[in-house]
Protein 1
Amino acid sequence: MFKKFLNWFDGGYDREFYKKHQNDIQQNNSRVLGIGLITIAIFLSSFLVVELTTGIIQIHVNAFAIMLGLTIIMFAIHTLLTKNKYIATLVLMSIFVASFSTFLIFEETYYMPNKNAVIFYVFMLALPILIIAPPYAILNYNILSFAALAIMSYIFKEKSLFIKDLMFGLCCIVAGIFLGRHSLINTFDGYSLRDKLEYQSRYDPLTNIYNRRAGRKRLEEVMVNEDKIAIAMIDIDDFKLYNDTYGHVKGDEVLRTLSSIFLYHARKHGFFVSRFGGEEFLFVTYGYDVEIIRSILDECAKDMKLAHIEDKNSQYGTVTFSAGYTITNSCKDIEKLVEIADEALYLAKDNGKNQIIFKKIDKE
């Protein structure tokens, strides 16, 4: 039962999902903490000014002054630590929330035992909701803070007030859990939507491999870090005729099958493939084993043959592809590399199709 409750409380929380967005989450926490520290400093300063000038609030001036000083110090530390590292802000946030919450409970139960300290408990529950933390941490925080409130209230208050604090506190915990779960669901839904939009901008919807724009961007990144690069241009043989004969639905199945073959081998060897055009693909290898591209293309051709997609218009009886590739040790001109690979592809087409042709770069 308790496990089911925790799963419900998670609000769709997933450790891998959280880890994927950890940097964004930490940056968001950092911003929230910075704003929160400034807001609390203004809050404390205002109370001190009003108390010192009028004396009508009846707060403990020394305690508020100490907390204001701690807030300013923590904001200074926060500013220094969050220039490059955001993980420190999570530790700082935990310390600050715990100390500030304890202070508020102490202020309202010890110095003003006849006032309802649980008002500040609402504030303690609201703080974790404003940040994105693992839900279990929020639940633990809520339970511990409620325990602190109950103990302080029991020690310093009359029994009737203690019972009121207890009931009000339990109501706040329930409300906090529901609000926290709702906040987490909305937040993670926002990240999920962003992931989907990012996926749609990078991947071809039909084949689920890089689209042309993402493939080029990936190639640009590779060219920055690698000198030895091989590029292959691949084209399905007589694909227009296949579509005219068997229909576009069957044509889409061919594209998906060939893409899955390319993607399998690209992932297996640690390289990448993208859809370049209608039935054209760009396959890239790089690093010390750049010349493996030929064997990978041969493996893809064998798998395509095993798939045995019938094509009565083909002299081979099945759907085939042609490929042209080139290898460079220093060229950083993407257009030139693609052009040479494309020329090799046309040579493969002219030589009877179902061919893999290499073309050397004359001058690098």
Protein 2
Amino acid sequence: MNESKIYIDFNAMIECDLILLSKTDFKKDTNGTTIKLKAGMKIKVYMDDKDEFDNKDDLIAYGTVEPNNSGAFKTCKWNIRIDKKGIRHESEL
């Protein structure tokens, strides 16, 4: 079974390493499991993407869940702070 990950829109970036994650306390992962988000939780996130040959090559990042205290997008409850490795293609892992 593949490692569980949560879908995210990497275009919802607030800072270079901070991305909007969820309006609620719960997100479903790729295995269909409902995950309860908590501050400090380490998660893997992804967004669909393709390589130059139109082959599936999702964007992947690891990070830490944190409350949305950015002052922006107040309807969003949780953000993810991406780790220092940043966002990369799955083929690069």
Protein 3
Amino acid sequence: MRDEILKKMLAEASQDKPVTRETIMHTFRVSDRSARKMIEDLREQGVRVCGQNTDKGYWIAKTQEEYERFRRDYVAKATTIFRRARNMDEETDKRQVSMFELL
């Protein structure tokens, strides 16, 4: 029921008039974390929920082009996170001391 109401809100929204997280929090009487989780749950279900920035709001893509524009930014964030994790892993590997070096 809650998912359906949220989907309806997001379907009526647009990039110019998105649904803010504050609106989701107020409508469903949930925390900020729960509001973000609700959005992620819809995305896990395959709903094309777009967002310019977490503080601006969300909407469901109306066109393939709109979705692809959002997807590029969304995937770029993930790529950046994976690159940073790899860099941290490599730095850790350089500083790791083996047991034999300690002897």
